[in-house]
Design a protein that fits this description.
The complex is a heterodimer of chains A (about 400) and B (about 140).
Chain A (H helix, E strand, L loop, with lengths): L23 H31 L6 H26 L3 H31 L3 H74 L4 H32 L5 E4 H12 L9 E4 L4 E4 L1 H18 L7 E8 L3 E8 L31 H11 L4 E6 L3 E9 L9
Parallel strand pairs in A: 2-4
Antiparallel strand pairs in A: 1-3, 4-5, 5-7, 6-7
Helix pairs in contact in A: 1-2, 2-3, 4-5, 6-7, 7-8
Chain B lengths: L5 E4 L3 H13 L6 E4 L2 H8 L15 E4 L8 H9 L9 E5 L4 H9 L4 E4 L4 H18 L4
Classes of the chains: A alpha+beta (about 400), B alpha/beta (about 140).
Chain lengths: ~400, ~140
């Protein structure tokens, strides 16, 4: 053969029918069988193509198309078998077989390489199992969601209760502020009128003085209590504040306490913190005020202000060499209206350190005191370096 | 020239007596009209009901208690400051309440001064003296 035209040459070949000795039964058997095989082979790829096109999610769909090409080629070889019974175009039928062989080999190789990946695909049984597990998980989650919802409802209820309690507290504070102060004013006022407009003897004058002193004392207690309640209720307004400046401002406020005295101050450079400056100034006023007050009878009063930095917090301290206190009572110091001294020794209502503790606690810090009777006291408070109130400097 | 009166709006008789005593002690000569609740104060100012025939001039200033039954001080203040004519009269809140909310609300309504009554009577007398001298003598109103 010398060209493509020769593909259809029959040369001197004999048609395949000769081999069957033109026996009609044998020919019929071959024609029928090859015909049926070819028809079936042609129908299979149609089904496969239809299947692949309908099942968009199919894995390895290209493999199905390879099968289809391979089967069409096989079918064609069977058609050629029928044709060859009468027409010995053996070059052409050989060529078609060669093409079929190529498709077969490629498909076979691809199929072998596909096996590991195909094995990795989950079997329907596995899928069922996974499905059941998922079903369980969905049930579990639904239960968890319901649980969370019930917790949430509970929380909403508790928040409402808390708000209610807060309202009551507000009403209480208002009533303390207004209604309790009025009778005190009347006591003091009418005692004053009594003293001005009637002749009191010596005892009578002293009783009148005790009554009015007590009324004023109670007025101060109420004012302190209201201020204390306010430090707990007002919203924090944190920003970056320089502790050095707050200490300076506190000292200016306390200047009258320092009049006619020489106090040796030692104040270290202090860091900036992210906090409510107005509240922290009160902390310093209370701590420095205490140091000044309790060192009043000391011959050479010394007050040291400093800080220490740990990994997470600043630890500030105010140290004095004043009256000090017995460590037995260290716990009582920060309680509201708790006092360790007689009114005649040191004045005050006992609200200062309670305020300090409340303010520091609201900033996420701690407070404590160390002391020794007659030697002095040191008060500490901490503030987180990475304040919970801030994100970054 | 006859001095214009001072209007004192105060529900508590003890407080009325102490305020009058403090004014007297400070020799403030203006007549003091006492209204025992917000409604009476408004009747007086608007010349209504029993005050329809009043001959006195409008008060030189008003000392107003905050907490009173029925019509309270804030409501009286609101009505005074929303009246074209009455809003010229200076109003001084004289109250026991140091509550921030009352203070802010009073200024929002246009109060002229807000004074917390001290418990200490000597201080109270001093406060009344300063208020009387400032609003009745030093201050000039239209």
């Amino acid at each position: 053969m010398s060209g493509l035209g020769d593909l259809f040459s029959t040369d001197t070949f004999m048609p395949h029918g000769m081999c069957y000795e033109w026996n009609p039964s044998v020919i019929a058997l071959h024609v029928a069988s090859d015909g049926l095989i070819a028809l079936s082979y042609y129908s299979i790829p149609l089904t496969l193509v239809y299947f692949v096109r309908r099942r968009k999610d199919l894995a390895f769909d290209w493999m199905f198309l390879c099968f289809a090409a391979f089967i069409v080629a096989c079918g064609t070889t069977h058609l050629m078998e029928i044709y060859n019974i009468w027409h010995p175009v053996y070059w052409l039928s050989g060529a078609i077989k060669l093409i079929t062989a190529a498709f077969s080999v490629v498909t076979a190789i691809l199929l072998i390489r596909l096996v590991p990946a195909a094995l990795a695909l989950p079997s329907p049984a596995q899928l069922r199992l996974v499905n059941e597990t998922l079903q369980h998980e969905i049930e579990d989650r639904t239960a968890a969601v319901e649980h969370a919802e019930s917790l949430n409802n509970k929380l909403i209820g508790q928040t409402a209760q808390l708000e209610e309690a807060n309202h009551e507290l507000e009403a209480f504070t208002y009533s303390v502020s207004h209604d309790l102060r009025a009778p005190l004013r009347h006591i003091d006022g009418f005692v004053d009128l009594l003293r001005a407009e009637s002749e009191l003897n010596k005892d009578g004058a002293r009783y009148a003085k005790v009554i009015s002193d007590s009324a004023r004392q109670m007025g101060t207690l109420i004012d302190d209590l209201l201020a204390f309640s306010r430090t707990g209720r007002s919203a924090l307004q944190p920003k970056w504040v320089k502790m050095d400046e707050l200490v300076e401002e506190a000292r200016t406020t306390l200047a009258p306490e320092e009049k006619d005295r020489t106090v040796a101050w030692s104040i270290a450079a202090l860091p900036s913190v992210f906090a409510d400056g107005n509240l922290l100034r009160q902390v310093w006023i209370n701590l420095l005020g205490n140091a000044l007050k309790y060192s009043r009878s000391t011959e050479h009063p010394e007050i040291i202000v400093g800080y220490r930095q740990t990994e997470r917090e600043y630890e500030f301290f105010v140290k004095d060499n004043g009256a000090g206190f017995d460590m037995k009572y260290a716990d009582k110091l920060f309680g509201i209206f708790q006092r360790l001294h007689l009114k005649e020794e040191f004045e005050g209502t006992g609200i200062g350190l309670a305020n300090v503790r409340r303010i520091v606690a609201r900033h996420g810090g701690r407070t404590w005191g160390e002391g020794k009777l007659g030697i002095g006291a040191t008060f500490f408070f901490t503030l987180p370096i990475q304040s919970p109130l801030s994100e970054s400097p | 020239m006859k001095l214009r009166p001072i209007l004192l709006v105060e529900d508590n008789l003890n407080d009325v007596e102490l305020a009058l005593s403090a004014l007297k002690r400070n020799r403030i000569a203006n007549e003091v009209i006492v209204a025992r609740h917000g409604g009476e104060a408004l009747d007086y100012l608007h010349r209504r009901a029993e005050h329809a025939e009043r001959s006195a001039e409008d008060p030189v200033f008003i000392l107003l208690d905050l907490k009173m039954p029925k019509v309270d001080g804030l409501e009286v203040l609101r009505q005074i400051k929303s009246d074209e004519h009455l809003k010229m009269i200076p109003v001084v809140m004289l109250t026991s309440s140091s509550e921030e909310a009352d203070l802010v609300r009073s200024y929002q309504l246009g109060v002229n001064a807000y004074v917390i009554k001290p418990v200490d009577f000597a201080q109270f007398v001093q406060v009344i003296k300063e208020l009387g001298i400032f609003w009745a003598v030093i201050n000039t109103t239209p």
